[in-house]
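Record type: monomer structure entry
Structure origin: computed from sequence
Chain ID: A
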Amino acid sequence: MVTDAATRDLPEEEFRLAAEACWKAAPDAMVAVNASGEIVLVNVQAEKRFGYSRDELLGQNITNIIPEGFSEGMLGEDASAQQTGTGIELQGRRKDGSEFPVEIMLSTLESADGLLVTAAIRDISARKRAERLKDEFVATVSHELRTPMTSISGSLSLLVGQWGSVLPESAARLLTIAHKNSQRLVRLIDDILDIEKLEAGHVAFNQSRVDIIALLKQTIEANRGFAEAYGVHLHLDTMATDADVHADADRLAQVFTNLLSNAIKFSPAGEKVLVTVDQKGSMVRISVRDHGCGIPADFKPHIFEKFAQADGTSSKEKGGTGLGLSIVKQIVERLRGEVGFEEAPGGGTIFYVTVPAWERAAEPGIDRKAAAISKRILVCEDDQETAAAIWTRLAQSGFAVDLAHTVAAARSRAEATPYTAILVDLQFPDGDGISLIQHLRALPQYRDTPIAVISSDPIRGRDDVRSPKLNILSWFSKPPDFRHLILVLNASLAPDTHKRPCILHVDDDRNLLPLIARAFSAVADVISTDSIKSARHAIMTNHIDMALLDIELGTTSGLELLPDLRNEDGGPIPVIVLTARDTGLLRDGQVEAVLTKSQASLKSLVQIVCDRLLPAPASASKEVA
């Protein structure tokens, strides 16, 4: 939501009422919170969803209605980095204590008192219930339908083969019809299971070097009997390019089978289906041409949708599940390729897929040029462009970097080479990152090795029930903040890692204390206190490297601790002041920075502290943030 200058100039109460009026027609619950996490704006839907009145919600901390996860992105830049439309799934808590699933979309709102974070909160209980019902349906199809249908189809096949010739003609015809229909049902069940598994990401892809010509010849031979039943001939172009691709051979064979099946069914008897292969740069294109009547113009935009079938009589007569091309699209996109179609010269249609050529995919991924004394890091990332970017930035900072694009490669390299740290993505073509980290932690040499996650959806990984037991150093979103990533790695790999920097945080805002502690967990130990008395006790009993002080601690000021903050040599311990509002306080010999809470972000605070406690090595000094 964006406000114009006139709205921002209104007194705060009028501004609040104006903003809530704008939200009145919104179908979702809408709340806005300040830098301290207090709710300052609500709409009617928020009252209905959470069971509170408007007056009860105003002034309440957001953690009372969104207990976990939401408050981490509430300060400054962290909030503005969240884009409206990017849903975060969390749990909401009603006034009666009951919880329900919600999807939250964040944006920022300028008010008279500074930047607010607004949240559109959608109740997704119905969606979650529908997903659960779908999962139960798929499980039923798999266990209660597929097994008996396979048995029925097999039995009918035996009857047709052994007794079809001796049964009366009418009985043999009915038996043949039953057999064909049972096969059609088995194919439908298989297709439904395949598409659901693909969409849910539960299909493992074992990618390797594949001889595309050899695979096509095998697939064509396997489908030749089906083609002969339609009077159609299958041909592989003798001029087809001999190329190797980076793919899963079984899944790619499934793609070719579906394309050939479509082409066979829609080609007139006596015609041929032609398969060609061409390499264009780093991609290999496989085309399947039929000589059918073409695709109706109004159906072209829907051809890769689930259960999509043209309305023409001839199309209906051909049968099929309407899932074949959707499955093709899902598989090809998982193989980092493309699928499409075009009209063939002289009539018919050409369907084509492109997949990466082996030369592009098969980079060795071992850094053999780095100095032997360099700290060696394993980057487990299936996206090669992302992996290359991480490799470049870490190499610039003096690290030796090896790459692994699959779980199998990561496990093999980790077992063969001792790494000082490992970075892991959460999704791979042949498995998931959390399982990979579990495997690594089970190896004695990696029990205590720093392992960080870099993922497009780190929240999902953090919510995984296995994650808390894996001692994960830190969680980074893609693309990572490389400066912060390198600081975290340098801190975790410091020679004396058992003596991590210790930060004293003094603040009477008890909601902020755990956020600060969590933000620094990867690079330092944090002692959190909410009073002058407890802070002085912490100073006496601990080695403090830096202090974060709130000025206003009830009737006292955090600045009273400055004389106490001295190291063993009597020198001043550096201090960063966090204030709720600008007090005009300036830096001096001990106070290194003065930050206003409403304008500072957790990320910038960590950066400022790390710059002072963990100076980057000389090799990293040239890095551009």
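Annotation 1: The two ends are 30 Å apart (CA to CA).
Annotation 2: Residues 343 and 401 are 47 Å apart (CA to CA).
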